[in-house]
Write a structure and sequence with these properties.
By secondary structure, this protein is an alpha+beta fold. Strands 1, 2, 3, 4, 5, 6, 7, 8 and 9 form a nine-stranded mixed β-sheet that branches. Strand 6 and strand 7 form a beta hairpin. The longest helix has 13 residues.
């Protein structure tokens, strides 16, 4: 857990936190979507996480992609801003509650460095028609990313 979040949680416990976050829907040259299987609950989702103090959301998305997937990514555009509480609220397995204002980018996989952090169990590219079930907070952005609808989305 990030030291900033650990410090915050020490003060407020498991209470709901409204938090800025960023992520990226990464595609390879064939259009496949890069997903991570999360270690905390085993669900599939996009790389992303909390934007910490002093960090802009673009850097957050690129950093999280590298840490969680082992891939360097190039941001190619803004997919959208996702803040609908019923879609962006989750309770972690440890009981921590969060509701995100999530800035999601689209990106291109550039260089694979191998390895990923302990937040990730598995990393895989999926063809759009073969996507697995995706965690609730990431399902909307992934559906939007594989659609032909105009960007950016505000949801």
């Amino acid at each position: 857990m990030d030291p900033y979040i650990r410090n915050l949680r020490a003060k407020i416990g498991h209470d709901l936190v409204k938090a800025p976050a960023a992520g990226v829907v990464v595609r390879d040259e064939g259009g496949r979507v890069l997903l991570v299987r999360r270690a905390d609950d085993g669900t599939w989702g996009i790389p992303g996480g909390w934007a910490g103090p002093g960090e802009n959301v673009t850097l957050t998305a690129v950093r999280e992609a590298r840490e969680e997937t082992g891939w360097d990514v190039e941001i190619t555009g803004l997919l959208g801003v996702y803040s609908e509480p019923e879609h962006m609220r989750l309770t972690y397995p440890n009981g921590d509650m969060a509701e995100f204002v999530n800035v999601i980018f689209e990106g291109r996989a550039v260089t694979h460095h191998g390895g990923f952090d302990d937040e990730t169990l598995e990393v895989r590219f999926f063809a759009p028609e073969e996507l697995p079930e995706i965690r609730a907070t990431d399902a909307w952005p992934v559906r939007d990313a594989v659609s032909d609808a105009p960007r950016p989305f505000v949801r």
